[in-house]
Specification:
The complex is a heterodimer. Chain A is mainly beta. Chain A has one domain: Roll (SH3 type barrels), CATH 2.30.30. Helix content of chain A is 7%, strand content 43%. Chain A is built from one helix and seven strands. The longest helix of chain A is centred in the first third of the chain and has 8 residues, at 2-9. The termini of chain A are far apart. By secondary structure, chain B is mainly β. Chain B contains three helices and twelve strands; from the N terminus they run E-E-E-H-E-H-E-E-E-E-H-E-E-E-E. Chain B has helices at 41-44, 63-71, 121-125; strands at residues 4-16, 22-30, 33-39, 48-55, 77-84, 95-96, 106-112, 117-119, 163-165, 169-181, 186-190, 200-205. Chain B has a six-stranded antiparallel beta barrel. The longest helix of chain B has 9 residues, at 63-71. The chains are: A mainly beta, B mainly beta. Chain A binds chain B through residues 2-3, 5-6, 9-11, 31, 33, 55-56, 76, 78-81, and chain B through 10-16, 19-20, 22, 25, 27, 29, 179, 181, 184, 186, 188, 197-198.
Chain lengths: 118, 209
């Protein structure tokens, strides 16, 4: 009973986030407030982790910025700051958490593309 | 004006505020409370408002308790608690709901902490325990020395030692109200609140703001 009350105050599921799988190349559109202005910033990278945990569900996107510096950002699935998430490409991976990508540079970070069958 | 309520802890979760940051909150089922008695300096030598919370079957109360509640025109209530106030415009029989608090208010939440049983000095007082290596045995969670030998010849009063921990009144001060749902008698405060789920808590206006 008390859990139902807790669920009822939590944020609803964000419909603009599709089903994500580790290895997906996604671009996350994030709302950013600058003073009074609001703009959308895109963060493009590989999903290295997708945690399904109800209200606290989150996913981590890794991208390599200039100078080969790896940048990882974790987003809450239900965050109202996420405008939408676009899946650009899926990969064939055999792990749930792709932490091994952190140790790889350049060509070694490529993942085998998975073609979605109908 | 009284800003106080009796409630029950429901549990913790997180919500998003208006700029989208996640806020950890504790949900409290607060009220409706009934004013069951007003203490005045003339009659009781101090001033306070007595609130009652949680309706139960009349058979669960004694005759004396029912009589006291009848006088206030209140339903049978399980808990009665007093809130000290300087002055109040509340009258006996009034109903107090979650609406007394607004978003952004700072409150103190008083509850009974979870009992930890007989706890050692490390858990109870944050002692560091003994060395793990250098040939030590049976010293890892020990209290250490409890005083000098013949110089004092005794252990000082109040020396921190193992013993019963928890199950005592604890106040969480200056919590921000992050959610008010008057229809469902819900209040969400930022941060944690003492006690287990379902535990009785008192919500008051913050004393030190």
């Amino acid at each position: 009973m008390s859990d139902e009350i807790l669920r009822s105050v939590e944020a609803p599921i964000n419909e603009n986030i599709p089903d994500l799988r580790p290895g997906d190349v996604v671009s996350v559109h994030v709302r950013i407030k600058e003073g009074n202005r609001e703009r959308i910033q895109e963060f493009r990278g590989t999903v290295i982790r997708n945690r399904k945990n109800g209200n606290n569900a989150n996913f981590t996107v890794r991208r390599v910025a200039s100078n080969g510096i790896g940048v990882e950002r974790t987003f809450l699935h239900r965050s109202p700051r996420i405008e939408k998430v676009v899946v650009e490409r899926s990969s064939h991976v055999r792990r749930a958490n792709l932490y091994f990508l952190r140790d790889r540079v350049g060509k070694a970070t490529r993942l085998k593309q998975k073609i979605k069958r109908k | 004006m009284l800003k106080g309520l009796i409630g029950k802890k429901i549990g913790m979760t997180q919500i998003f505020d208006e700029d989208g940051s996640a806020v950890p909150i504790t949900l409290i089922e607060a009220g409706p409370c009934y004013v069951t008695q007003i203490r005045t300096p003339q009659t009781d030598a101090y001033s306070a408002v007595q609130l009652g919370f949680e309706e139960i079957k009349p058979a669960r109360l004694t005759g004396g308790q029912l009589g006291h509640l009848n006088k206030a025109d209140a339903p049978p209530l399980r808990f009665l608690r007093e809130f000290r106030v300087k002055e109040t415009d509340l009258k006996v029989g009034d109903k107090v709901t979650a609406e007394v608090f607004e978003l952004g208010d700072h409150v103190d939440v008083i509850g009974t902490s979870k009992g930890k049983g007989f706890a050692g000095a490390m858990k109870r007082h944050g002692f560091s325990g003994g060395p793990i290596t250098h040939g030590q045995s049976d010293r890892q969670r020990a209290v250490g020395s409890i005083g000098a030998t013949s110089g004092t010849g005794r252990v000082f009063k109040g020396k921190r030692m193992p013993g019963r921990m928890g199950n005592e009144r604890v106040t969480s001060a200056n919590l921000k109200v992050a959610l008010v749902d008057a229809d469902r008698n819900l209040i969400g405060v930022r941060g944690s609140v003492p006690g287990a789920k379902g535990g009785l808590v008192m919500i008051k206006e913050a004393r030190k703001q």
